[in-house]
Amino acid sequence: MKKILKLLFLVAFVLLINSNLVSAEMVKNFYAYQVKNVNITRLAFDINSVISAYKGSDNFTPLENVNNAYIYSDKNCSYFVKLYPANKNTDVFVVSNEKYDVENNEMTQFLKQYGYKFDKVEDNAAIKEYKFDFYTLARKQQLGNFYISPDLVKPLKTGMAKLNNHMAKDSKKTSVFPYTNDTEPIKLTLLDTKNYYDGNARISIVQNEFRLKEKENKYVHAYEYIITNKNNSNASVSATSERLAALKDVTTESFVDLDRLDLIDTVGSFPPVVVLTAGTSLLCSVPNWVRLAKITKEAKRFSNALPENYELKSQKNMRVLVLKYKSDPKPVNFNFKFADGSSYNIIF
User: Fold this and answer.
1) What contacts 345, CB < 8 A, 6 or more positions away?
2) Once rounded to an integer, what is the mean pLDDT over residues 173-179?
3) Is the Cβ–Cβ distance between 280 and 259 less than 8 Å?
């Protein structure tokens, strides 16, 4: 009971502080468009071309050190924009103040000018992931008019991350689960596909990126590598990576975040936008251990050890499933050895 009272007092205290900053009612200012049949590379190129050529008095600039993210501001409104791959489409996520017109604004005008077809994003899992990314980025970057309250469980999350990094230091990814050539269908949302072909080794690789269904998608995405040996000889395949997310990383970091609930999405009007997040485990209706079990079950499939001296027969394929941190997705280094003594390294 005391914990609940303390939590309610904290919420009231933050609201009281922000009521002095700006007088406003609760607003929902997150929105996402899906641009149809346009990949993220093409859309980002067109946006950057328009930005570099624009000479107006308002300000629409790319964020430094953040791919495909922008800040726009003029005398009436300010908003944050980030692009996300969505298979053959591209999602455009926008965070703004209450004056943002979702039907007619600089972004929709740009999309119409280029003849792009777009609609509202209806995928709630995608929206939740994009919002979490914004919270994280705003706390690190201090995004202009967007004020983000402190992360109340940051010390615990930081401790877990440090422990995981220490355990993984100077060692390749290891797992209690041996590598197996998984052949079952993947029933997850496909986000992006990239292809690679080495003409010398006659090895083709397809990399597919997926969004997981449970809360671990805030931290990691699932990756599938489909490797085909088009060489006339069998290949011995081994793989390593500087840093992948193992099952222990997913369960510890996701467990810390299980009790987080966005009590207030947005409070305030232009210029400040205030977002409060707090630990609310006592208010959750689903026990943490049940939700953790779901996370573990889903992530386990992508947490097997990487292959070591796996024999890939000529004209056959194999599949490697891994988890990568969204904030720093490291490539996988594949080594192929053939019967004639030739050896090839492919980093993809």
Assistant:
1) 333, 334, 335, 336
2) 64
3) yes
